Amino acid sequence: MLEGKTVLLGVSGSIAAYKTAYLASALKKQNCDLHVLMTKNATHFITPITFETLTGNKAPVDTFDRNFKFDVEHVSLSKLADIVVIAPATANVIAKLAYGIADDMLTTTVLACNCPKMIAPAMNSNMYLNPVTQENLKKLESLGWKIITPGSGMLACGDTGQGRMAEPEEIQEAITHEIAYAKDMKGLKVLVTAGPTKEYIDPVRFISNPSSGKMGYSIARAAAQRGADVTLVTGETYLKKPSYVEVIEVVSTKEMFDAVTSISNKQDIIIKAAAVSDYSPAVTSSEKVKKSDDDMSIPLVRTPDILKHLGKNRKNGQFICGFSMETENLIENSKKKLIEKKMDMIVANNLKTEGAGFAVDTNVLVLITKDEEMQLPKLTKYEAAHKVLDAIMKNRG
Known about the structure:
It is a single chain. 32% of the residues lie in helices and 23% in strands. With 397 residues, the chain is of the alpha/beta class. It folds into 2 domains: 6-179, Flavin prenyltransferase-like (Rossmann fold, 3-Layer(aba) Sandwich); 189-395, 3-Layer(aba) Sandwich (Rossmann fold). The strands form 6 sheets. An 8-stranded mixed beta sheet has the order 12-11-8-13-16-17-19-20, sandwiched between helices. The protein has a 5-stranded parallel beta sheet with strand order 2-1-3-4-5, with helices on both faces. A two-stranded antiparallel ribbon has the order 6-7. The longest helix is centred in the C-terminal third of the chain and has 15 residues, at 381-395. The model has no long low-confidence stretch (mean pLDDT 93).
């Protein structure tokens, strides 16, 4: 996701510097060109050799180090950078950056950078909550810095409170969100549905399906990374909620219908990737239904057809994309749904195709509009999500 991007990662003197090694490793796996800059105090907690081994680049500490190529290194690095991230950032480094003090390799380079900047504070909770530190963070924020809020818990000093540097996964996601993709969806409101719905028979039994929600969650994450204002309406899943996305949790199809229709008129794009139940028990028992030697039948009624409602009640200029999972006649059945439910595009896959379907990390999709069909190869659901968004942006005019 970060191939072709240059990331400058600043490390200052905090015990949390050990976490930054994990962050550096994760970023390199995303194929970025990663350069680590360290303060002298940081080298007391972790050595430059660690980062040089992880990144394949020198980790400079001294502004006047002569052991590098001739060009002025802090200037050349600042020109290369697509983003600067300081993690961990001590109260001292935060204060320097807030007031433009450039007295080492890290602060000198950052002062010369014109790219997006992020900072992940790490310190004792009293230091973090000190009005001076808070004022410095507000100043940085007013200057365009993104603050990655520290977590709360047991700190290295033994105190408990806020001040723990955000986890590497959270910082990595913030970097990816900021620079991985062009913001071609900025200003658009996007509604995504995901996961299964459950129709309860009694307090312990329900009708549902094996949907994991991975496809819808991937679409929501991808749209947010491309600058959209994303709302995710999701059935119950075990997935971590995507960052930078408003999440509305529901259980039944009726709850999803109500949640979607209450905000649908505000959306520019609606992507219905949820696997909703088509039928619900006519009566739900308030007590557990006991076993019986007699055959049991459960009368069913149709649930609300969310896509059909959206197609009939769309606002002008709204783009509606549905999903179709079939076991036979994939294209024919999907085209029929496309027309009947007045969609602009339908994303189809066959449950019997290897690498597609429920609860797997890949998908094999066909993107269908009134004018064309596009067969995608087997992709990860995240890769497929971007292909779906590409097609939507192309076809929405």
